[in-house]
Amino acid sequence: MSETKRIAVIPGDGIGKEVTPEGVKVLEAACAVSGRKLAFTHFDWGADRFLKDGTTLPPEAPQMLQRDFDAILFGAVGDPRVPSNQHAADILLGLRFKLDLYVNARPCVLFDRRLTPLRDRGEQDVDFIVFRENTEGAYAGVGGNFKQGTPDEVAVQEDVNTRKGVERIIRYALDYARRKGLKRVCMSDKSNAMTYAHGLWQRVWKELREEYKEIETRHLYVDTLVMEMVRDPTQFEVIVTCNMFGDIASDLGAQLSGGLGLAPSGNIHPGKVSLFEPVHGSAPNIAGKNVANPMGSALTGAMMLDYLGLEREAALICDAVCAAVREGKTTPDLGGQMGTREVGAWLSERIVKSGLAGAGA
Ligand code: NAD
Ligand code: IPM
Ligand code: MN
User: Fold this and answer.
1) How many angstroms separate the CA atoms of 92 and 35, rounded?
2) pLDDT in tens, 324-355
3) Distance (Å, rounded) from C-alpha 76 to C-alpha 329?
4) In terms of residue numbers, what domain contains 293?
5) Which ligand sits closest to the CA of 13?
6) In angstroms, what is the span from residue 246 Cα to ligand 2's centroid?
7) Which domain-ending residue is among 263, 290, 314?
């Protein structure tokens, strides 16, 4: 019954190092209740290690992670001492690309109406998921500089879109909607301006949606998408878009549902070792103060458990976060007065209590 799931933990930098241990505690609590076993192995990849010995992502890391682990729990990377952001690009984008984690799934769910900045909106109004293409687009790292540092300098960053890349993320979004019984999928691009790159998105979209007649498919240019997300978020169930637009739309979606402190994500390749991380970054402005919200990491842990087939344990975590929000057991970003560690401890206790109550029922 209790097959151990092997989890690689990469806390990274800044608040990643504060919230990830809380995420781990919450995961341990959820699995202790059901007797499921998780084995955690920590990796110190991040700015400290980079500044010490130059290591970013060790070359053997992707293969090792694929071979020895079931999933990866990630914190955040980015440190003011590394202005080039080289280590972050190597570690985070490196893992996304080298593990071919082509789906970046970012759910935006409002747990409590008090958390949304939208006037007169309630829990039922914000409940959608953004699927962000995660292996190409403007992030592909194709480009260069010419005559840098002169008045004639040139900077080029190519937007790389492949038929395979576009097709697999759109198909994933449509299949997800079908699997979950959802009705509405919106594809967003900027094909009116990026006629070559996003012309491809248009062609693939029109072709694939024919196979999903039961789903209401819709296209919005990305500028309209973000405007509509604010004006009336009830329109959206599934949004699928390119790497860069998905980055932006998912931060907006996070804010509509309580802010970056609460937002989880999964970098997924179905059937393969996948990486789960909060949507937020390393937040140097609040790092080291025990004020960062660990709920994003906790909900990220829940997404990871879901992916691993531990749905009951995942639900315990989501319920605990929901209860904490309702009871005001939160960090200052959500209006509370508790610290990172205190919220983590509260969630763990709540999970154990409700898990035992559930088991006894
Ligand atoms: P950020 O997400 O780190 O912070 C944005 C704002 O949100 C800040 O005011 C921060 O204090 C707040 N915030 C974020 N997470 C919070 C939490 N858990 N609790 C309370 N408040 C929280 O974004 P940024 O400031 O643009 O970037 C900082 C660094 O993080 C940069 O180096 C950036 O490249 C990096 N970054 C990394 C990731 C990642 O690893 N996935 C994601 C985004 C940014
Ligand atoms: C995210 C982050 C990253 C991204 C950065 C750190 C490269 O903002 O995970 O959303 O843009 O993908
Ligand atoms: Mn981002």
Assistant:
1) 32
2) 999 999 999 999 999 999 999 999 999 999 98
3) 24
4) 1-102+269-361
5) 1
6) 10
7) 263
**In this structure, what CATH number is given to the domain that contains residue 159?**
3.40.718.10
Q: Are 53 and 59 in contact, with CB atoms under 8 Å apart?
A: no
- Could you tell me whether strands 238-241 and 103-109 are parallel, antiparallel, or unpaired per DSSP bridges? unpaired
Return the structure tokens found at 298: 């906790």
Answer yes or no: is pLDDT of 146 > 90.
Answer: yes
Distance CA 9, CA 69 (A): 10
Query: 154 and 54, same structural domain?
Result: no
Note the pLDDT tens digit of each residue in 83-93.
999 999 999 99
Chosen domain end from 247, 263, 279: 263
- Whether 361 has a pLDDT exceeding 60, the answer reads no
240-256 pLDDT per residue, tens: 999 999 999 999 999 99
One domain, residues 127 and 247: yes
**What gap in Å lies between CA 353 and CA 320, rounded to an integer?**
10
Which pTM does this prediction carry? 0.97
> Active-site residue numbers?
139, 190, 223, 247, 251
The answer for residues whose C-beta is within 8 angstroms of residue 142's C-beta and 6 or more apart is 157, 158, 160
Q: Is the CB of 88 under 6 A from ligand 2?
A: yes
280 lines ligand 1 (CB under 6 A): yes
175, 277: one domain: no
Q: Is the pLDDT of residue 286 over 90?
A: yes
Mean pLDDT of the chain: 97
- Are residues 174 and 206 located together in one domain of the fold? yes
pLDDT of res. 4: 96
- What is residue 355's predicted lDDT score, i.e. its pLDDT? 83
Q: Within this chain, do residues 110 and 258 fall inside the same structural domain, yes or no?
A: yes
The protein residue with its alpha carbon nearest to ligand 1, atom 34, reads 78
Total of domains in the chain: 2
